[in-house]
Structures are given as structure tokens and as C-alpha cells.
Amino acid sequence: MTMFKWFGSSKDSSEAKPTLNWQELTEIEQLDQVETDSQEKPVVLFKHSTRCGISRMALNQFERSFSPEKNYGLFYLNLIAHRDISNLVASRFQVYHESPQVLVIHQGKTIYHASHGQIMGDHIAELVNQLV
């Protein structure tokens, strides 16, 4: 295993795919779906930089430890490919842009967000379970 594969590639690569059942955000209009879904269930949105090793490690750790027992929405945003959507997420859900970053959106509002080493899948799963 090369060091780049362990830390994440330094190039924008499509070979590194997430392992959870993510809905990938690729269109600005999908943010309406995020907001609508969040009225019925908590929505988790992970913003990932495919060029950042720290972001890759945070995503891998999140995927290993996130396993809520309840119904939830799960969205993934490749912010290198879709910086316009990332900027809109920041303004629409009133958070400062960071990467990596995870948001929990419930009833149209951000109720939790974390970045870098503060992204803990088990903690977020616990929060999601309490909201449903």
C-alpha cells in the first residue's frame, strides 16, 4: 500500500468511493431534498475534499463508526467537484465552510456540525437515534 493510498490521493480521484449508502449531492436543486427530508428524519451531510488526506481519514473513520439504529438521510458532497453546492450549504444551513465537515440537519436547520478530528460517527449516530 502506498502512502498516498493510506492518506488519500493528492489528486482529485474518483476511485475512492464511500462505503455507506450515501446519496451524492451533484445538483444545487438536491438541497431542497435535503431540507424536505430533514422534516421527517434527521439528515447527515458529509462534505469531503477528495484532495485532502485528512478528509479521507475522517471519512474512513466516520464510515467505520457510524451505524445509527433509526431512519435517517445520508448525503455525501465532493466539494472539489461541487464547490458551488458547498458554498450554498454554508449559507443555507448557516455554517462556516470547513473540510472535512459533517452536518446534522433536522427540521430544516443545522442542529450539529463538526470538522476534522471532531467528526465522530458513533456520537453522530447517537444523536440521530435520539431525534427519531
Automatic annotation (TrEMBL):
The name this protein carries in UniProt is: Thioredoxin family protein
Q: Which organism is it from?
A: Aureitalea marina
